[in-house]
Structure prediction request, 346 residues.
Amino acid sequence: MNESIMRVFRNTVRIIQQHLRNRKIVFWGENPSFEHFLQEEYNLSVECYVTAVPKKAHSKRILLEDLAEKAEQYYIIVTKEQPSQHIKKQFKGMKFAEYKDYIFLHRKNTIIRPFSPDYKDPYGNFVHAGGCRVVLGKLVTDSYVYVDDGFKGDMLIRLFGRGGARATVGQNCKSTIGGRIFIHDNGVLSIGNGVSFGDNVKISISEYNKVTIGDDCMFSYNILMFSGDGHAIFDLDTGRRTNLYLDDDPKGTITLGKHVWVGSGACILNRASIGNSCIIGANSTFKGQIPDYTVAAGNPAKIVKSHVTWSRNPNATEISECFSTWNGATENIEKLESELNDSSEE
Prediction:
């Protein structure tokens, strides 16, 4: 039995044990593997099975309608059918509540639309979608997503794999069309306040990887960010995977400071650390570290200019405007002017 199936089984039993009490287990559909798993791992046995054919009903085969209003006696496990509104409506009419009185063995992807009520499920997932659309994969558990209600535009956050992901998006962020964020097992995303995304910005966070984007960053369009390789890579001599990152491994991180401008067509790779008020040039491929107030460009990107800053206002005439959208305006101006003076004296 493969790992994914075992995880499905364990996740399902975790919910069943919370609600079963002394009720009898009924299977809607047959699944010998899961029935064996219940017996061997948890000493739980199946009392009977649901049938849709009246003449096949007997002590071990019971009609679904005969279970109506008997939730105090039976707990139903739907082993073959996936969740559907039609089936859920049937159960509601029978006075059975999902998870409490019945459960689907197999789940579908869960879609939480923008500005939906907070989503919580017994698998440990919590989503406050804010202005984003969030999709949880069918195996995802123990994940947390919080998007501020001030988010505007088109952004999809999709969680893959087994879960354990964490994602937070701050205040007053926005995206035009085609924004996509993919987070795999135990990935972490942190987006600050006032961040803007142009068309088709895509961020992919591999398992145990982290992406941190500071306040007031500005992304142009057609930008890619990859915190990992996306697929497993193995060494032929040792047979070991070479790109499996664990928690707190710096190889699997991307960090952008505050007020970073990423030009169109740029690609930012893992182990990137970009300081405050930096600029990444158009069509650059960046991997490495650069300090505050720096421009990096090229493929691979290299530092091409230092001691600079930038403004969201294309018609700005005063340097103070460069700091008007992020904190510490006076302090930053004085720091930059001091650095410029020191540079000119050398």
The first strand starts at residue 24 and ends at 28. The chain has a mean pLDDT of 91. The chain has four helices and 28 strands.
